[in-house]
Specification:
The chain is an all-alpha fold. The protein has one domain. The protein is built from two helices and no strands. The protein is rod-shaped, with a radius of gyration of 21 Å. The protein starts with 9 loop residues before the first helix and ends in a 6-residue tail after the last helix.
């Protein structure tokens, strides 16, 4: 298990989550290890969702700003 205080990149979190899924699909691990991996996976999913939410908001802001710039090209000084 990777300590959650160690900051991983988005891509590294995805790779770790994929590794957890593969490990849990392996029927050779025990119940306790499965629970630990499940807990780590949930933490990774929550972190990834949070990160995606932040990126989504940034993209929305950039698109809104881009629309304003494009609209400004076609408007005269009076906003027409």
């Amino acid at each position: 298990m990777i300590p959650m205080n160690e900051e991983l990149s988005f891509e590294d979190k995805m790779l770790r989550l994929d590794s957890i899924i593969e490990s849990m699909q392996n029927s050779e691990i025990g119940l306790q290890e499965s629970v630990k991996l499940f807990e780590e996976g949930i933490k990774l999913i929550n972190s990834l969702n949070s990160e995606l939410g932040g990126v989504k908001e940034k993209v929305r802001i950039l698109l809104d700003a881009s629309d304003e710039i494009q609209l400004g090209i076609f408007e005269d000084e009076n906003g027409n």
